[in-house]
Design goal:
Strand order of the largest sheet: 1-2
Number of domains: 2
Number of strands: 2
Order of helices and strands: EEHH
Strand content: 5-15%
Oligomer: single chain
Number of helices: 2
Largest sheet: 2 strands, antiparallel
Structural class: alpha+beta
Amino acid sequence: MVKLGHVPYSFGKSHTVPVLKTRSSIHCKTITVDDFRGISISPVVSKVLEHCILQRYEILFVTSDNLFGFKKSSSCAHAIYTFRCATDYYIASGYTVNMCAIDMSKAFD
């Protein structure tokens, strides 16, 4: 693929399989769509290629310092700390700070 510069179309395909979130809810109520989450199963070959590329070219994949998710040595705590520092700075400078929070827990279920 690297030599030809072409990736087969089927290489990026995956199969999505529904998985029941909690097994205890089976006997308690009627099962709905909200009781399932989807997982994607990708070909092993694509995962091997992905790891080879990431290992070899990791230094070229630079992301912003403001990106906290899916990075090594970064977590939600870092995002909260940065938000808190920015908020404290503006409040100390005499500005009014308006904020909005969105519950993203359903986005990843």
